[in-house]
Amino acid sequence: MNQRPLSPHLGVYKFMYTMSLSILHRITGLVASAGFLLFVWWLMALAAGPAAYATAMGALASPFAKLLLVGFTFSFIYHFCNGIRHLVWDTGRGLERKQARRSGAFVVVAALLLSLVTIWFACRAFGVAS
Amino acid sequence: MSLRTPLSKVIGRGSAGDGVGHWWIQRVTSVALLPLTAWFVISLLRQPLQSYDAMRGWLGQPWVAVLTILLVFTLAWHSKLGVQVVVEDYVHGKGAKTTLLLLSTFVHIGAAVAGIFAILALALS
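^ Those are the sequences you sent over. The predicted structure of the assembly is below.
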């Protein structure tokens, strides 16, 4: 039983960048799940009152937390864009090799641009001088 | 020749015992999350995040509260399904797999209840 080749057996394929986009969808999904827990923690801090909220916002202002927030932002936006790509695939469209490579490149560029725009607006909303 | 019994064909649930339910709900929640998350991020970033009063006033509005509750609920569901797929694909030990799946289920349900409670507490007080 354990000797059978079990899917996913990735070693047999030549590496294509669309493969890293595929695994990136899972990784960013997991990171977004962690981001969901952070979001709930933030909501609970808001519900707990002004002091708790101030503490939470203080914690989010540390350089490490900011880096984390940038990571969450990109992860979420990449997962959002690539998720649309997956939904289009589910309708049976865009599955040709060329189309899948082109949509992959489009998703990466779109995710990077949207992340930059979101981070810019987030800095303003946080009151960080930009 | 098929090795499947006539009964399993009629029930149509495959070897995992729940058919395409998991796959389908993941798609349904993802479609719902596209407008919900886009709305939330755009609205949130227009608020002064440092002001407790402003944030409380914003989140306490009836429609903002309702949409944010829907967002928390749908996010938790989608995330639970996604984490489940990842665990099932990469964790092969039976004990470790069951433990992680249980833990993920509990954390997701706990987070969903906490998030929805927080919004209700803000909106109804």
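The mean pLDDT of chain B is 94. The longest helix of chain B spans residues 94-124.

Shout if you want it in another format.
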